[in-house]
Specification:
CATH topology: Metallo-beta-lactamase, Chain A
Number of strands: 14
Strand order of the largest sheet: 1-4-5-6-7-8-9
Shape: globular
Strand content: 25-35%
Largest sheet: 7 strands, mixed
CATH architecture: 4-Layer Sandwich
Order of helices and strands: EEEEEHEHEEEEEEEHE
Radius of gyration: 15 Å
């Protein structure tokens, strides 16, 4: 048995901004990645409902980084543990749990790895699925990059982290603000 990923809404970043929001089902774990800005909360809630998932069913929420466009709707999931680069939060409990390059397990087939690039606090969600390895990451905003992320504090570090994630040979990349894509020769490094 492996995990299954569903993109609830594909984000965008142009004159408006929305996060790509994903759902991962892994046994008893029901995980939402980056419940950030969307045009309306129904863009998250309706696809969940269509999949038979209630907000109270969500066990975990993963935040790739702390920009509001990736975090603003985290409170939709009152029962979820919230994971970021440094801790796991539930109610009023803050459990230090640093994510490093080796990673931290969220569930049997979902691991978080540190991938500083877009920000110094970025993490990537690595999902083992029947379709192969899937990565939810903000190392790319969308399929075409941007090649030079205007918010990246260190362009060389971003390049290194992109190469590191690509070395995992993902079958699919779920970027921060776009539809999932398959890595190709034109994928920005």
């Amino acid at each position: 048995m492996t995990a299954h990923l569903h993109v609830l809404t594909a984000g965008y970043a142009d004159d408006r901004v929305a996060s790509t929001v994903s759902l991962i089902l892994d046994g008893k774990s029901v995980i939402v990645v980056d419940p950030g800005m969307v045009s309306d909360r129904s863009a998250i809630l309706e696809p969940l409902g269509e999949l038979g998932v209630d907000v109270g069913d969500i066990t975990d929420v993963v935040l790739s980084h702390h920009h509001p466009d990736h975090t603003i709707n985290v409170a939709l999931f009152p029962n979820a543990r919230v994971h970021d680069h440094q801790a796991i939060y539930l109610g009023d409990v803050w459990q230090d749990a640093e994510v490093d390059e080796t990673g931290r397990l969220v569930s049997p087939h979902v691991r978080l790895i540190a991938t500083p690039g877009h920000t110094s606090q970025d993490i990537t969600t690595v999902v083992t699925s029947n379709a192969g390895l899937i990565v939810c990451t903000h190392l790319w905003w969308h399929e075409t990059g941007p090649a030079d992320d205007p918010f990246a504090p260190d362009r060389e570090l971003l390049r290194q982290q992109r190469e590191r994630v690509l070395a995992l040979a993902p079958a699919l990349v779920v970027p921060g603000h776009g539809a999932p894509f398959v890595v190709s020769a034109s994928t920005p490094r």
